[in-house]
Amino acid sequence: MHNSIDDFSRWYKSGKALLEEIAGSAPQPGEAYIWFMGQHGFVINLAGVVFYIDVILNDFVDQSGRSRRVYPPPFEGGEVQRVDYVLCTHNHGDHLNLETLLPLAKANPRSRFVVPAPAVRILTDAGISEERVLAARAGNDIDLSRYAPSIKPGSLALIPLPAVHTRYIQDEGAKDENGDYTSLGFVIKGEGISIYHSGDTWPAPSLVKLLETYAPLNIAMLPINGTDWERTGEGCIGNMGVLDAVKLARALSVDLAIPSHYDMMANNSENPARFADSMYALCPQKRFHIFALGERYIYRSCL
Question: Is residue 29 part of a domain?
Answer without folding.
Answer: yes
